[in-house]
Amino acid sequence: MRTPTLDILRAVAVILVFSRHSGVFPVLSQIGWAGVDLFFVLSGFLVSGLLFREYQVSQRVHPGRFLMRRGFKIYPQFYVLIATTVIVDVWLGQPVPGRQLASELVFLQSYFPGLWGHAWSLAVEEHFYLLLAAAVALLARRGRMQSLPCATEMDLRRLCRGAGGADRHLAA
């Protein structure tokens, strides 16, 4: 389900990152890094919500299924990008750096140099998904999920209503 408020936050994040890399909005380019942080927060909120909802419905969490769904959303496009990069490098007669390629293929670009400078954030996100799925599954198995302070969409709706209905889309 799309939430207009989150779409606005995504747009702000895009503008900040774009400004940082392009310099089009010089005032924003100084704080453009905050756009990446905002993407991480939004991703963490939305993705953790999937796991928490699964637990609310079934009192179980299936980390393998969760990771496969995340993989099908990310891996196909990412591996097409890698393949395209390799094909173009070979076509242009440029060497394909094996270590950098391996770093990209297994999402270690935040630890070792990759093919591009911008994929480190994808590696960070992938590591977060792995750790989150493992932690939530472990807590669910031990019956400790109730001890987590989780903000659900309903909590956000209540919060927005309490703030004078600032977000009519969430409060509706």
Blueprint (SSEs and pairs):
Layout: H1 4-22, H2 26-29, H3 33-58, H4 63-91, H5 98-105, H6 120-141, H7 153-162, H8 168-171
Helix pairs in contact: 1-3, 3-6, 4-6
- What would the average pLDDT be, to the nearest integer? 80
Write down how many β-strands occur, each being a DSSP E stretch of 2 or more residues. 0
Structural class: mainly alpha
Strand and helix order: HHHHHHHH
Structural commentary:
The structure is a single chain. This protein has 172 residues and is mainly alpha-helical. Helix content is 71%, strand content 0%. The protein is built from eight helices and no strands. The protein has helices spanning 4-22, 26-29, 33-58, 63-91, 98-105, 120-141, 153-162, 168-171.
Task: Supply database-style keywords.
single chain; 172 residues; mainly alpha
Concise summary:
This protein is mostly helical and 172 residues long. Helices cover 71% and strands 0% of the residues.
